[in-house]
User: Fold this.
Amino acid sequence: MKLLLDTNILLWAMNDSLPDKAKVLLEDSLTTLFFSTISIWEVGIKNNLGKSDFQVDPRELYHTLLSCGYEELSINAEHTILSSSLPLIHKDPFDRILIAQSIKEGIPLVTSDRVIRDYPGDIRFFSK
Assistant:
């Protein structure tokens, strides 16, 4: 199985603070974990803005994810086009790209964001 992790889930995974059910899903040896380029950008921007949940160096996060076996999913024009045509349920551009990538690539999106659950596609929701 393939899974695309949203930014908060990535940060929880790196801090070993995932909810138990999410941890079981992500630690399955048959699961390939993906992170989006947009998540690295989001961490960098929100870190620079001083957001407390994002006090992570984006370069360090990127290298850690790669060293842990995560695969990078780059953004392409089809993702951006799809994100602009999604219903305006969620206005966060980072999350809209993640949703579009999930739909376009056919990879379930793992998220802790309740609003994302209202989008079409395979969304796996976990909260703390």
